[in-house]
Specification:
4 helices, elongated, Ferritin, mainly alpha
Length: 147
């Protein structure tokens, strides 16, 4: 049986998950916005990739909402600021910046998880989302490189 300090801090977990969810909502919308608004022949493939990322982000948003509700909380409907950029390079820069922030916020949500079974499940869920999201950031960083 885990000691008190090793138990899931439900209130802190819900608070952290909702902070991450604010950014997750933005991720869904920002990737969708960029998927449909990039112009130029050379960027059409990137638009398809952004659409794939948007679908992944939506799936993860649902998982975060489910977890908040399962812990007895109310999922936030707040959305972090979106930005449209007509220049694809600017769009990629904004995504790198905002998605890196989201990765760090998700990582911070691991702190109150503890060592109970449900705590471990939450931690692994967060790690999975972080890994997928970081892979997307890495893709963006590679796309940004010119040489």
């Amino acid at each position: 049986m885990p000691e008190q300090e090793e138990k899931l801090d439900v209130d802190a977990a819900v608070e952290c998950l909702n902070k991450a969810l604010v950014l997750q909502h933005r991720s869904v919308l920002q990737y969708s916005l960029n998927a449909g608004s990039l112009f130029g022949f050379e960027f059409q493939g990137l638009g398809d990739k952004f659409w794939e990322f948007a679908r992944n982000e939506l799936t993860d948003a649902r998982l975060l909402v489910e977890k908040v509700v399962a812990l007895g909380g109310d999922p936030t409907t707040d959305v972090a600021d979106l930005r449209w950029a007509g220049d694809p390079a600017d769009a990629v820069e904004w995504l790198i910046e905002t998605e890196s922030e989201a990765v760090e916020t998700l990582q911070a949500a691991i702190e109150p998880t503890g060592r109970e079974g449900r705590s471990e499940a939450l931690e692994h869920l967060l790690e999975h989302i972080i890994m997928r999201k970081q892979n997307q950031v890495d893709f963006l960083v590679r796309a940004r490189r010119s040489q």
